[in-house]
Amino acid sequence: MDSELKCPKCGSEHVYQDGSLWMCPECAHEWDPQAAGETADDAVKDANGNLLADGDSVTVIKDLKVKGSSLVVKGGTKVKNIRLVDATDGHNIACKIDGIGAMNLKSEFVKKA
């Protein structure tokens, strides 16, 4: 067993390998440590739980007020070519929206198109 490897979900040291996946007997989490972008710390998921990546297109699922203006991003607006960013305030998607311009969105308010 790899003494350095811990479960990314619960932090347990009691993990074991099953084929190409690693398993945690405490929380039943399965993961592939070689898969890029799928660790618990840096995975960005949409409202439906789908993994998002740079360059994806997403659709806004509800009306969102633009802070500091009277503009509103309507639900159903399609946003192309998103960029994932590290943000402490929860806005982890940088994008450009037609008619509004550059802005940041929270991944919980979009779904993968």
TrEMBL record:
Belongs to the YjdM family. InterPro entries: YjdM (IPR004624), YjdM_C (IPR013988), YjdM_N (IPR013987). Pfam families: YjdM, Zn_Ribbon_YjdM. This is PhnA protein. PANTHER family: PROTEIN YJDM, PROTEIN YJDM-RELATED. Transmembrane segments: none annotated. Residues 6-32 form the Protein YjdM N-terminal domain. Gene3D superfamilies: 2.20.25.10, SH3 Domains. SUPFAM superfamilies: Prokaryotic SH3-related domain, Zinc beta-ribbon. Residues 44-113 form the Protein YjdM C-terminal domain. It comes from Magnetospirillum moscoviense.
